[in-house]
Amino acid sequence: MVEVSTSILNIEKGKEADTFLKLEIAKTDYFHIDVMDGKFVEKNTYNKMLENSEYIKRISNLPLDVHLMVEDVKKSIDDFLAVNPNIITFHLEACKDKSEIYEIIQYIKNNNCKVGIAIKPDTNIEEIFEFLPYIHMCLVMTVEPGKGGQTLITDMINKIKMLKEHIDNEKLEIDIEVDGGINLRTAPEVKKAGANILVAGTAIIVAKDFKVIIDELKKGINIF
Ligand code: DX5
Ligand code: ZN
């Protein structure tokens, strides 16, 4: 079953509470928390995402899907463990070497949280293969991390296919999450390629009825 994780990055200022409630009613499967430190990516959403996460935890039982786009991964993990997320995903490119990657995987798990690794569009998919047996999810960025509202990079479809093929060949149980430019037009092809969790921000937040768009994304019916 395909799940939808709604990115709260571009929620209208002052409408956060109302939007979170509407997303809860629309049954988003996760709230996707885009944590940016102004160093790994240009924008800095760190405190806003911490605040929003704390608020969501107070009004909703829906799980938090935390996407760390930060240089100081360890410190961010400590900060966001405080909001009891379902999963924390960090970027392969933020780590200096393999031992740091394994250390972070273990650290997140030791704190009773699921772990994901994200890869940027320019990172070869093979670079993540050795870590797959130890993680719960691979987040394939289908845009350059750093902002919402971008167009999906179509070369990423093949990358998702290669990842899915490897996971199936190795008989691994891992979620494939795709993130960036996901909408009713691109959802069918990323699903066909093997993604089972779709992150969408703009496509959902601009919609009049969140439930309609979330249900359509899951079905992936091409209405264009
Ligand atoms: C980009 C973020 C994405 C983004 C998705 O760095 O990781 O989660 O907010 O937004 P849309 O769906 O608008 O591309
Ligand atoms: Zn994200």
Textual characterization of the structure:
With 224 residues, this protein is of the alpha/beta class. The protein has a single domain, classed as TIM Barrel. It has helices at residues 16-25, 46-59, 73-81, 98-110, 126-129, 155-169, 187-193, 202-205, 210-219, and strands spanning 3-7, 30-36, 64-69, 87-91, 114-119, 137-141, 175-179, 197-200. Strands 1-2-3-4-5-6-7-8 form an eight-stranded parallel barrel, surrounded by six helices. The longest helix has 15 residues, at 155-169. It is globular, with a radius of gyration of 16 Å. The mean pLDDT is 96. It binds D-xylitol-5-phosphate and zinc ion (ZN). Zinc ion binds at residues 7, 32, 34, 67, 179, 199.
CATH topology: TIM Barrel
In the CATH classification, which architecture applies?
A: Alpha-Beta Barrel
How many strand elements?
8
Widest sheet, order of strands: 1-2-3-4-5-6-7-8
Bound molecules: D-xylitol-5-phosphate, zinc ion
- Tell me the fraction of residues in β-strands, as a range: 15-25%
CATH superfamily: Aldolase class I
Question: Which word captures the global form?
Answer: globular
CA radius of gyration: 16 Å
What is the top-level CATH class? Alpha Beta
String of helices and strands = EHEHEHEHEHEHEHEHH
Overview in brief:
The protein has 224 residues and is an alpha/beta fold.
Salient structural properties:
9 helices; 224 residues; binds D-xylitol-5-phosphate; TIM Barrel
